[in-house]
Amino acid sequence: MISPRDILGINARQLLYIKKYNSKKAVAIADSKLKTKKFLQARGIRVPKLVATFRKVQDISSETLRKLPADIVIKPNNGSGGNGIVVLSERRPYGWLTVSGRRFTYADMEKHLQAIVQGAFNATGYSDVALIEKRIITHSKLQGITYKGLPDVRVIVFNLVPVLAMLRLPTAASDGKANLHSGGVGAGIDIAKGDLTYLVQHDGLVHEVPGIGNLTGFTVPYWDEILRMAVQAQYITNIGYLGVDIALDRHGPILLEVNARPGLMVQVANLVPLRKRLRRVEGLKVKSVARGIAIAKALFGRKMERDIKMLSGRTIMGNKEYITLHLPGGPRQFQAKINPRLVENYIDSSLAESLIEKHPSIKTENGDLKMRYQILDKKSLSIFKPLEMDASSFDVIIGKRELKNVLIDPYKYETKEMPQMHEETTQRPSSSQNKMKKQEIVRQWRETDKKLSRVEKLISKHFSLLAVNYHEEMEIFEEKKGNYNPTFVYKEDKDLLMALHDEVEKIAIAEDDLRGQLFAQKKDELLLKLNFYQAVGQDAERYTELSEQLFAKANQEYSVKAHELYVLFKKQRDTFMEKHRLTAEELEPYIVEHLHKYGLDREWTIVKRNHGSRISVGKSKKRVLYLRNDAHFTKEHNKQLFAHEIDTHILRLENGLAQPYRIMTNGTAGYLQTEEGLAVYNQTVNLESKNLHVFTPALTYLKTLEVMPLTFKDAMDSSLVQVFFKPGAKIANPLRSSFRKIYRVKRGIGDTSQPGGCTRDLVYFTGLQKVQYFLKHGGDIQQLYKGKISIESVPLIAQMDELKDPLYIPSIFA
Fold first, then answer.
1. Does an H or E element contain 298, and which?
2. Is the pTM of this model over 0.70?
3. Which of the listed residues 246, 561, 719, 784 has the most CB atoms within 10 Å of its CB?
4. How many domains does the chain have?
């Protein structure tokens, strides 16, 4: 069984490996396919032949396109995930055929190249370069196992050691692209021999490649040369944690690209936790390419265990195995921990009690249990002493007395999972001791919860994105009539940041438990948040990257949806009516009335203040709803306002306060997208398209993406900054209003003449898309009301039986 702590997640990948081992200069090369190609080619690495490049729309002409050869590949220079790649195989009078047989006309080519140059496939939104490469004809041995298109090998290299690899195969579902997210198949590879092991498609294991069959045991040609090229690429680029994509033609390996932020599906394709392998080679002194490959084959080859057993004649056990207890009523199977530091064998006391109750004959005079057992091919009769095992996932511990003629390999299950236990053998009867044990587990996790909560409160209290010179810079901006890039200064406390970082790092979390997984994710998020605040006012590029990881980043599919809403908005913009404007004082009785529906009007206090958002919910147990004194509200939109603030933020907080863990009120990792997405969903459900609230999240999303690459003063010309101003409407101070809108994107940046910014405002539209997807695919909205939880944490939380069902559900869903 794979431990969650050994699996590499996105946050851990960024914090532990990318940030630590990948320099900005090296990453800049990896992020540009053109730079990578020139850099590696100059150093003797085979790369695809470059046919042409297009940097400007003006460069794209019908005459130029007609001169292009038949077998070509079109790529965006800064694209990722296979987006924007088109593979063409044959010329036709109208243009080309793609490898999947689809028509691709000259008009299609011109349109696609223009889209690339204009940044359509660049996640940052910046303009890009379109590359035309000579198409690679795949090696004959691979042609027989793949659909039309080019398969490639992804190798993860760390510290000059190739730690994991997979073969990516195009399918009909992926339209001939070797892209797993598009429906391609990933095949795990035995590092030592190049043999295929497991197959994965659509995030799940499959037994065969569609239309091809089972490929288990197929050997990838030129395997040693592939490993050598991958390690050489790391050695040359000096990117410490690297993904290398290599194809095979009739001459051997050819390097397609390097990736400084490689995806994590490779561990799924191999059924191997990547983080565990990375830990094994971290810190090794690897002095040559050949040495790195030798280490990989020695450590990670699948054949090693069988060879050791053959030579030694001893059983190879991992640090955990399944044990079969041969009882009078028949065999029962449990999970055992192999611990040579203990002399005796032990069995969980609650399990021992239930077994003795059913089979009294196994009990000895001193209360121990005497039973026959079998682990792998080792059989014996032995004594097991009852022991309280608390939150352990093991039922039995085997001590060194039973481990004669046994070799222990602590990494045994790194390249394969433990076999599944039969369900009927693992059921354990309930007892009062089980109940007490469960209460003890909750108590222990509450201590961890308290430590994480303390850090989160300190972060909220001491760190902010509000510049200390905000008002001064706004006045200068106003004096210069918007022709000014503010320089913002932020409060710093590096000592506290470092102290909190150390405090979080020291919080030990065992992830062999549902709660452990939940809290480990939160721990990773807190570390990310601390790194984020450390970057405030410093390096704009670094700050932007961390913001994207913490909040949200651009998504092409979501951008298209947002743009469609923007087009509709412009058509209906003049129809939006705003009458009956209310002051904060006038709005208060309506809020009290809505709270009364849930019996919360006496629990919550409404506080009016001179700063902050128009309306916001306090995060503490004090139950405070804040109104800004100078804010105005539209009476017609009260229903949507209350759906957002009360039916979402307040009700989720109330339900979280009823739970045993503070994480349910502070928020599980990634909860913010779900929180704001659900709030938007609640306020827009059943609304007509003529209501402004239908469009606001999409407009905010597009505004953020449009402003981020601009300087502060250039953002004044952004149509999406001005779009919120209704034609003919009287704005008291348009410059200040624009300043505030631009600042929401540029907050956290010191020198606002630099590109980048805060992606916090992307969470509304991004979260809405995820909530809609969750509900469309069978998710129950009531599951999201157990507290301030993320959609991603729902499967874990659903299994935590100490959590209560939500006390409050919006009336429209009850």
1. helix 289-300
2. no
3. 784
4. 3
